[in-house]
Amino acid sequence: MANESTYSDISTVVNSIYEVAFLTSREQSIMQGVVQVFSDTNSSTPRIWTAYTGGTIATVAETTDMSSQAFTHAAAGTLTPAQYGAQYFLTDQRLASDWAAAARDAGTDLGQLLAVHVDSNLAGTAIFQNLTAGTVGTAGGTLTWANIMRANAYLRASNVPFPYNVVLRPEQWYYLASASSGVPTLMVSDSILENIAREFYVGSWGGMDFFIDANITSGTAAYGAMFNKQAIALDMRRAFRLESERDASRGGGGYELNATMIYAYGVYRPTFGVQMVGTSS
């Protein structure tokens, strides 16, 4: 047979069918739900916190007149807020020609971009490496349940109150969950399922709540952590804000989409957290 009329005859001239534009795949904000959050001011003034120094107990004889001991506090740390932002510029021609809802998608993407920025800072190596209650695991090795229990013991021995949050890379959690033996039966907390971090929660056991965060830097020495929420602080001074601004002189006209946040972050009580080192390969 010959002279059939097929799609290949017109494939170079027909319009493509575009169903949807996919935004960049990003992990969202996990850490915000498991750390100490301050939101009591929109000032850019640094937040300074203090720690008390206490006394000591002595044996007191029946006739002893006790001497006073100093009970005071001194600055223990500072959170200094900074403004973070990103901008997309969409020209009139782009908006008129784009088959997708470009302005809406750009706003959504900016929101996700800043959410990842917050989470990556809170779960950053610079934060987890400054937790001082102890370190478990080794570079190049895989985390084990023995490491989990040792980290738990470090915090218990330091009188750190429960509950403990355990935040790990997905690959680190894989090695724990796929162990051939010694894997505990995890329970599910209804209260955490109502929390902002519920989508990244994988279960609880022995006073520890486990979360997976792909924003942790990967590598043979990836740093996760076990901590009481007071170990790390997020000081939100101005939440995500998206504003559009018309610019008629730029490229024949268009709209700037300006996304900003003001916040501070840092280690708040370093003795309330343990570093957990293991490969994410």
What does this structure look like?
The protein has 281 residues and is an alpha/beta fold. It has one domain (31-47, 75-278). The chain is built from 6 helices and 12 strands. The protein has helices at residues 92-97, 102-122, 125-128, 145-157, 170-177, 190-193, and strands at 36-38, 47-53, 72-79, 82-91, 135-137, 164-168, 201-205, 208-212, 222-227, 232-247, 254-267, 273-278. It has a 6-stranded mixed β-sheet. The chain has a 4-stranded mixed β-sheet with strand order 1-10-11-4. It has a two-stranded antiparallel sheet with strand order 2-3. A hairpin with a 2-residue loop joins strand 7 (201-205) and strand 8 (208-212). It is flat and about 100 Å long. The N and C termini lie far apart (56 Å).
Layout of secondary structure:
Blueprint (H helix, E strand, L loop, with lengths): L35 E3 L8 E7 L18 E8 L2 E10 H6 L4 H21 L2 H4 L6 E3 L7 H13 L6 E5 L1 H8 L12 H4 L7 E5 L2 E5 L9 E6 L4 E16 L6 E14 L5 E6 L3
Parallel strand pairs: 1-10, 5-12, 6-8
Antiparallel strand pairs: 2-3, 4-11, 6-9, 7-8, 9-12, 10-11
